[in-house]
């Protein structure tokens, strides 16, 4: 039922806009709002958050199913369905009315900011500083590569609150309001894919907030991120499967109707091998992802390495599938009349976000060697 509902949402509302969004590198803000409202009405917005904070309370496997359907469309349009940062589960009762509820009603937009110019994979290098001055926190620092920062109303942001402390208690998550004068949006980065999903750089300059803007515990930023990181990686693994499925379906249909040397290209063994390799890798990625989701749902601590396996394999798998499918389409795959080249570009970022491939290999090797 969930799969059908999301597929219908994607097919009817998002798919017709894919080309326009990719070319304009923007989702029209009015359309964006309408789509998010529709998702709220369908009960899908915030589906990944626990019911205790007003979310849909879906388990990891259901989130993967949604991810699979969202992977069939563009990243920017998929965002309108409302997969929200898991850290929202740390909101206090006092933060609900002004912060959480407008987000759950899709009236306000949220970004999530960890990365900085000198801190990506290695977030022990995060330097944005929050210092307590009297009753208030004063924040200074720069965040970069932040999805949706350009249009966000709020940002959940990681800052150092105790520079001398070990990693686990060095950081705190804050809720930052973008309309605040201390929030300076610096620029939007131009990028090869994910068009319509802006990637921004912003600075905080003596941005002052009271304790009300601390998300979770002071010093709990590291654990806060770790508590939700696996869920996001598993959900994204679903997206890779969705995109690869979409590509493979297009390739199978095309191979059957495109004729060369007197027969459909699907009858050339070289093409069949590309289809077969893609199918095997797609199914392998699906099994790794469903396995990771089932461990998450069982509360099994092995989920961490399972999430790394599915994220690593799935993100690399979809890149290989996109490459083969583009080859099967020949010139038609390389031009933008069809969505193949768009997916080829979009897939490339999957090996970077949510932990790079190298970071996941390190995690997997560490687990193996231990
Ligand atoms: C499209 C997109 C959207 C994003 N959205 C967000 C967002 O919303 N919020 C946010 O906070 N961030 C976001 N990011 C940032 C993303 O999380 C980082 O790009 C990622 O963590 C990698 O950091 P980096 O780019 O600084 O690379 P670096 O950490 O500088 O790494 C550079 C290279 O070195 C490799 N490397 C690093 N350490 C090791 C090691 N120990 N061993 C071997 N190789 C290593 C990496 O794998 C990579 O290949 C986004 C990025 C992209 C591309």
Structure description:
The protein has helices at residues 2-14, 18-24, 29-41, 60-70, 75-78, 93-104, 167-170, 221-257, 269-297, 303-329, 331-334, 340-348, 357-369, and strands at 110-113, 129-133, 136-147, 154-160, 171-177, 183-188, 199-210, 214-215, 259-260, 263-264. It is α+β, with helices and mostly antiparallel strands. It folds into three domains: 2-104, Butyryl-Coa Dehydrogenase, subunit A, domain 1, CATH 1.10.540.10; 110-219, Beta Barrel (Butyryl-CoA Dehydrogenase, subunit A, domain 2); 223-369, Butyryl-CoA Dehydrogenase, subunit A, domain 3 (Up-down Bundle). The strands form three sheets. Strands 1-4-5-8 form a four-stranded mixed beta sheet. It has a four-stranded antiparallel beta sheet with strand order 2-3-7-6, with no helix packed on it. It has a two-stranded antiparallel sheet with strand order 9-10. Strand 2 (129-133) and strand 3 (136-147) form a beta hairpin. The two termini are 41 Å apart. The model has no long low-confidence stretch (mean pLDDT 97). Flavin-adenine dinucleotide is lined by residues 112-115, 120-122, 145-147, 194, 199, 349, 352-353, 356, 358-359, 362.
Tell me roughly what share of residues is in helical segments.
40-55%
In whole angstroms, how far apart are the ends?
Answer: 41 Å
Averaged pLDDT: 97
The CATH homologous superfamily of the largest domain corresponds to Butyryl-CoA Dehydrogenase, subunit A, domain 3
Sheet-strand content, in percent, reads: 15-25%
- Structural class designation: alpha+beta
Question: Which H/E pattern describes the elements?
Answer: HHHHHHEEEEHEEEEHEEHHHHH
């Amino acid at each position: 039922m969930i799969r059908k509902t999301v597929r219908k949402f994607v097919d009817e509302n998002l798919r017709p806009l894919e080309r326009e969004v990719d070319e304009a590198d923007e989702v029209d803000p009015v359309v964006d709002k309408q789509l998010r409202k529709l998702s709220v009405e369908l009960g899908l917005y915030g589906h990944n958050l626990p019911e205790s904070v007003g979310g849909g309370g879906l388990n990891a496997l259901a989130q993967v199913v949604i991810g699979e359907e969202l992977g069939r469309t563009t990243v920017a349009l998929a965002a309108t369905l409302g997969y929200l940062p898991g850290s929202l589960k740390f909101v206090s009762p006092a933060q609900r009315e002004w912060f959480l509820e407008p987000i759950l009603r899709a009236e306000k937009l949220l970004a999530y900011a960890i990365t900085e110019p000198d801190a990506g994979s290695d977030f022990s290098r995060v330097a944005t500083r929050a210092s307590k001055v009297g009753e208030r926190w004063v924040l200074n620092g720069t965040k970069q590569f932040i999805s949706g920062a350009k249009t966000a109303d709020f940002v959940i942001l990681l800052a150092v609150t105790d520079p001398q402390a070990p990693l686990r208690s060095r950081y705190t998550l804050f809720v930052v309001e973008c309309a605040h004068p201390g929030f300076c949006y610096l620029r939007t980065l131009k990028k090869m894919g994910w068009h319509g999903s802006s990637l921004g750089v912003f600075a905080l300059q003596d941005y002052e907030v009271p304790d009300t803007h601390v998300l979770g515990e002071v010093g709990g930023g590291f654990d806060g991120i770790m508590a939700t990181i696996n869920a996001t990686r598993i959900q994204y693994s679903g997206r890779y499967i969705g995109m690869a499925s979409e590509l493979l379906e297009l390739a199978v249909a095309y191979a059957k109707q495109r004729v060369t040397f007197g027969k459909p290209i699907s009858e050339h063994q070289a093409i069949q091998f590309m289809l077969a390799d893609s199918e095997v890798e797609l199914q392998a990625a699906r099994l790794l992802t469903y396995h990771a989701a089932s461990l998450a749902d069982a509360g099994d601590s092995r989920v961490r390495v399972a999430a790394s396996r599915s994220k690593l394999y799935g993100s690399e798998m979809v890149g290989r599938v996109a490459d083969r499918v583009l080859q099967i389409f020949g010139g038609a795959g390389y031009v933008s009349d069809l969505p193949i080249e768009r997916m080829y570009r979009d897939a490339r970022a999957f090996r970077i976000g949510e932990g790079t491939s190298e970071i996941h290999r390190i995690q997997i090797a560490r687990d193996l060697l231990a």
